[in-house]
Amino acid sequence: QQEEMGQNGVVPLFELICTSFLRFKPKWLPRFVELTQQYVSISWAYSSKEGPEGRVPLYKRALGVLSRKSKHSEADDEMELELLLCSKRPKAVLQALHLLIRLKRWQRVVEVAEKFSKLSPLLNKEIFTTLLAEFAQHRELDPYLDTLWPLCPAELAASDILTVVLQHLPRSQEDPVPFSSEGNQLTVGLLKPLLQRVVQRPCVQDDIYSDALQSPTFPPPTPPREHKIPSKAAADDAPQPPMARTSSPSTLVQGDTA
């Protein structure tokens, strides 16, 4: 409430500017929010307990201004998408992706997936899993498979892909799936290029040991042993073995004469 009204019932400057943009220059609002986020992030003091944008992210504050409009139109849906995407936050991007799926704007769905999958591996996995679930339910994404399959994360195995597909297959009450007469069912042929791509790519562990496996000789030859020759001083200092006690020649002579 304080973020919306500020002190003494005065509307904060950010909300006031957003309202002005929505009224006079709506196309400028997403860019304004994006630039404001960048400026606030640069000037943020790391000792502050709150985030760089305060308790409420700026894109949510802009969405709050948008939701207070008296009349809602298709242009407002597009504005909501742009505000979510300009934040580049994972939750906001996924929210925009689900909104596009609900509106069935499949080309825009693919464009958003291709662009924002590069932000982080975790977001890439979430986006691809979401679209794979949609792919299992209908055939609207079939024209874009050449763009979607390269987005498959490296950590996803073939078993993971099949698990997602089987969990989201549509339930048909009339015909079993393998013998369905409908033309919108998922077939093995549609899924085969993705599975081949996953199976044929090198494993992560293979990359770790690739340098060793590609060496000229594996295992490496044993280094030659060095034969150490003891020095003369060391030989002199070494303890001598005890000499056997023998009788002196004079003793032997005395024994013979006796």
TrEMBL record:
Pfam families: HPS6_C. Residues 2-225 form the BLOC-2 complex member HPS6 C-terminal domain. InterPro entries: BLOC-2_complex_Hps6_subunit, HPS6_C. Transmembrane segments: none annotated. One of its GO terms (biological process) is protein localization to membrane. It comes from the Eukaryota. Residues 211-258 are annotated as: Disordered. PANTHER family: BLOC-2 COMPLEX MEMBER HPS6, HERMANSKY-PUDLAK SYNDROME 6 PROTEIN. This is HPS6 protein. It comes from Ceyx cyanopectus (Indigo-banded kingfisher).
